[in-house]
Write a structure and sequence with these properties.
heterodimer, A: mainly alpha, 10 helices, B: mainly alpha, two-stranded antiparallel ribbon
Chain lengths: 196, 225
Amino acid sequence: MTKFIIIMLSAVFINNYVLSRFLGICPFLGVSKKLNQATGMSIAVIFVMLMATAVTWPIQTYLLDPNNLGYLQTIVFILVIAALVQLVEIILKRYIPSLHKSLGVYLPLITTNCAVLGVTILNIDEGYTFAESMVNSLGSGLGFFLAMVMFSGVRSRIEGADIPKAFQGLPVTLVAASITSLSFLGFSGVIDNLFA
Amino acid sequence: MNKRQNFLKGIIKENPVLVLVLGTCPTLAVSTSVTSALGMGAAATVVLLCSNIVISALRKVIPDKVRIPCYIVLIAGFVTMVQMLVKAFAPALDESLGIYLPLIVVNCIILGRAEMFANKNKVIDSAIDALGMGAGFTLALLLMATIREVLGNGTWMGIEIPVLADNNISIMTMAPGGFLVFGILIAIVNKITGGKKTKKDFGCAGCPSAEICGKASCGEKEEAK
């Protein structure tokens, strides 16, 4: 149990996907302007991350590894994720239209989100079991959610600020991201001391 | 546009990292040291060159409706090849790039160039475009990595720099330093170009998810106008 908690906490805080691993920067910078969009995108990411892990982990363990096809990992994973996202979108559209309405626009965007492909590959690289992989994916998704929500708050404050012309738009957003990410550095070492 | 301009635009006028702002994830992640930045630049350039050539050659064969999945499969294939080559001949580089090597698949620069350039132009032009963009990506990475490694570690490609080595600002090699240097570099580019060329001018048209993204964020700006 302790192991799950450690994986979870380190995925959310210490190895935060956006702020320390630099995965999923595009949606982080692009969709974090408004809180409701940030929330919608993050929930879609958590959802797809969990689904993708649930599908890719068995494929790698029971299909690719026994047949010495490990080198096909990248091709298979990206295809599976792309197909999965399409499938999820079709199912949501048919059966849960209200959820499709709120998540729908974000789903196709996620196919090319490196955080999703990243988490599935990292789960294999770290040698996690299926349960650990799922916990890690959930933690990574929640970490993405946390970063997005925090950052949309930061950005709403930037909106009203008086910024030098050259820094307007993306540059000031990046500087703000730098400070947000600085705050996350404070978490490093916390987990080790917590369970030492 | 002649061939020389075609090559040079990738380096300065339409620099993929600093002007088009594509491929931010690898830029921020591997620019901690000059060596890994060069490795990443080279790997991405090879993939970009191969994918641009093949996509351009097949542009009349691939049906328009399924072009994005086709491109992704082709790119993933080339990335796997590069990955195997790096693992075999440069294991140290493989170690330092880690997860970011397979993630070249989802690097927007590659899909972006396929969509923006290769599927509309001849093979040779596409190859030149790929080389220019690859060089632009590598140079931008190199610039960022130089700043971060010199200030953060006091070294350049492992060579110690006398005074700086004792007074290093270690935050520069960590995550916040990446965001900060990138932000300041883009601000400098904005200052030089007078902010005329922004991502909107090139970026959205070439981004494979422009339409969806537009609904999510860009669209509102246009509505507001």
